[in-house]
Specification:
The chain is α/β, with parallel strands linked by helices and 343 residues long. 33% of the residues lie in helices and 24% in strands. α1 packs across α12.
């Protein structure tokens, strides 16, 4: 690949990075460098050059590593995953080396805000519909909040105020633990089992919420300078496998644009909504990162979201960013060969 092409470096990130790297590399307009702390990362072989990031490492040392790598590899754009808030705080230092910084938000504080769902709900409540939620730190408060929300809404659930991939989410039930265990249902927990787990424990901040029974929507959005450029709305319909369908709901798009402005989004990010019993979508969370379902949104819309993100930072024309609703897709497992001899 000609060395005259601008070099784009993807640092350590989650699995959809493979999809993003392929789009950028296959465009023929960029040379791609990719790095991870593990040589087993699936996406390293899709890049022109794979690197191994140091670990464990403090923030200050990581910044030094990044700046030195920019110099050595003549990088014109860094797509940051690891320590994204740190990179956002030091944007000027990267730009002084001629490197564009591509991270989900240009505002360093937005990453912490999206992580702390209790604080996030407090800030956006009243502006975007959200599930009724209580923050608790002990079993007695948790049970009291859950019983009250159950009486008001029919069911209550809980999750840690900080977390990803739905880890720790449980719907509270009167009983049935053995049935749920034998059927492989990991999302339900009886009050009795919850009490055994949580009573007399120093809990992290937990959220107790009304259970939302309706359809779930995930929006993979691309923003630049706080402006929403496009957002692919996918409805999770279940069925055989992970079937999802492209939809166009103007109200969800409007709320996503508001989030992009307020959080100063500047790349790919994700918003999750779920309908209540009356069919009103309520915001579950915003992820200041590209979601695991990004390849699904790309397939549903026909939009190369990973490439568009990079192109938007190089000032390239993006073309028509609309899509037609109605397409249905499912995902399947892919096997990739891992590279050897990484630096």
């Amino acid at each position: 690949m000609p060395s005259s092409l601008p070099t784009v470096w993807f640092t350590k990130n989650i699995n959809p990075t493979l999809h993003r790297i392929r789009q950028v590399a296959q465009s023929g307009r960029y040379r791609v460098v990719a790095s991870h702390t593990s040589t087993d990362a699936s996406y390293l072989g899709a890049a022109d050059l794979g690197l191994t990031e140091p670990t464990p490492i403090a923030e200050e040392a990581y910044l030094d590593y990044v700046l030195e790598t920019l110099r050595q590899k003549n990088v014109q754009a860094l797509v940051g995953g690891r320590f994204a808030a740190l990179l956002a705080r030091h944007r000027a230092e990267l730009e002084n080396l001629g490197c564009r910084l591509i991270v989900p938000s240009a505002e360093p504080d937005s990453y912490e805000l999206c992580e702390d769902k209790a604080r996030f709900y407090g800030i956006f409540s009243g502006r975007i519909p959200m599930p009724e939620t209580r923050a608790v730190r002990d079993w007695d408060a948790l049970e009291g909040a859950a019983r009250d929300l159950e009486a008001r809404h029919g069911s209550a659930c809980l999750k840690p105020a900080r977390g990803i991939f739905g880890i720790g989410f449980r719907i509270l039930t009167p009983g049935g633990d053995l049935k749920h265990f034998l059927s492989g249902n990991t999302t339900r927990m009886s009050y009795a089992a919850a009490e055994l787990l949580f009573r007399d424990q120093a809990l992290p901040n937990m959220l107790v919420m009304e259970t939302l029974p309706g359809s779930e929507y995930s929006i993979d959005a691309l923003a630049r300078g706080g402006e929403l450029l496009t957002g692919v709305i996918r409805k999770k319909v279940g069925g055989l496998g992970n079937v999802q369908v492209a939809v166009d709901l103007p109200q969800l798009r409007e709320w996503t644009a508001l989030l992009a402005r307020e959080l100063k989004m500047d790349g790919l990010f994700n918003a999750q909504f779920k309908e209540d019993a009356a069919g009103v979508p309520r915001l579950l969370e915003v992820n200041a990162r590209a979601s695991g379902g990004l390849p699904i949104s790309a397939a549903l819309s026909g939009l190369p979201l990973g490439l568009l993100e990079v192109d938007s930072h190089f000032g390239a024309p993006l073309g028509d960013l609309s899509y037609a609703p109605g397409r249905r897709v499912t995902d399947t497992q892919e096997v990739v060969e891992l590279p050897v001899g990484l630096n």
